[in-house]
Each structure stands twice: as C-alpha cells, then as structure tokens.
Amino acid sequence: MTSRVVSAPPHLLQPIRPPGMMETWWDPMWTGYSNKLQKRFSDLMDYQGQVVGAAPIRPATHAKMEVLQNKLIKLQADYDLKAQDTSRPERAQDSCKKYAMNLTKYVNGHKVGIGVE
C-alpha cells in the first residue's frame, strides 16, 4: 500500500532572496544570506531525519535523498573553505550559488511529498 508523508512545513519551503549583483562578497548581505542558507540546510536535515524515522521509504527514493544530502554536505564544506579565501571572492560566491541551487532542488523534492511503502 502506498501513502504519502506529510510535506515539509511551509517555512522550510519559502525562498531565500539572494543579494543583488551590485553587492560585493564582503557586504553584510552575503553574510546574512550565507547564515540563512546554513540554517535552512540544518532545518531540512532535521526534517529529513523525522521523515525517514516516521516511514519506511522506498529504496530508490532513499538512495536519491542520500545522494543529494551528500552533495549538499560537500558543497557546504566547499563553500566554507572558499569563503575563507578572501583573495578569490568570486569562487566563494559561485560555491554559495551552487549550494543554494542544490538546496532548492532538495526543498522542491519535499514539496511533492515522499512516496512510502
């Protein structure tokens, strides 16, 4: 029998507005954006743990979630490392954008709910 797990809470699905193109990497807006991304990532990982613990997930779905989760963790580590390199701020900015894109993909996966057996 197939059922659906309740979708993620609405506050986890709200978009996070990135700073504009005119704001430099050192601008406080980027720091705030980075902090919001990291908080959202943490909240989503907590939510995923609740979902996984609440229902037996199809192996294929679970595998996809793990791949994306690992990608997000790697991007976060990459972002943290590049953010420390102030000589190449554009690299850290690119990493931050990739992290945000993958976080959005992860959130969109939760919008439709996760099929369970």
Question: Which properties best describe this structure?
Answer:
117 residues, mainly alpha, two-stranded antiparallel ribbon, 68% helix
State the share of residues found in helices, binned by percent: 55-70%
- Globally, the shape reads elongated
Number of strands: 2
- Model regions low in confidence, pLDDT < 50 over at least 5 residues: 111-117
How many helices? The count is 4
Supply Rg: 16 Å
Strand order of the largest sheet: 1-2
Rounded to the nearest angstrom, the distance between the terminal CA atoms is 6 Å
What class would the helix/strand composition place it in? mainly alpha
What can be said about the biggest beta sheet?
A: 2 strands, antiparallel
Describe this structure as you would to a colleague:
- There is one protein chain.
- With 117 residues, the protein is mostly helical.
- It has one domain (27-111).
- The chain has four helices and two strands, in the order βααααβ.
- It has helices at residues 10-13, 28-54, 59-84, 89-111; strands at residues 3-4, 115-116.
- Strands 1-2 form a two-stranded antiparallel sheet.
- Helix 2 runs antiparallel to helix 3.
- It is elongated, with a radius of gyration of 16 Å.
- The termini are close together.
- Residues 111-117 have low confidence and may be disordered.
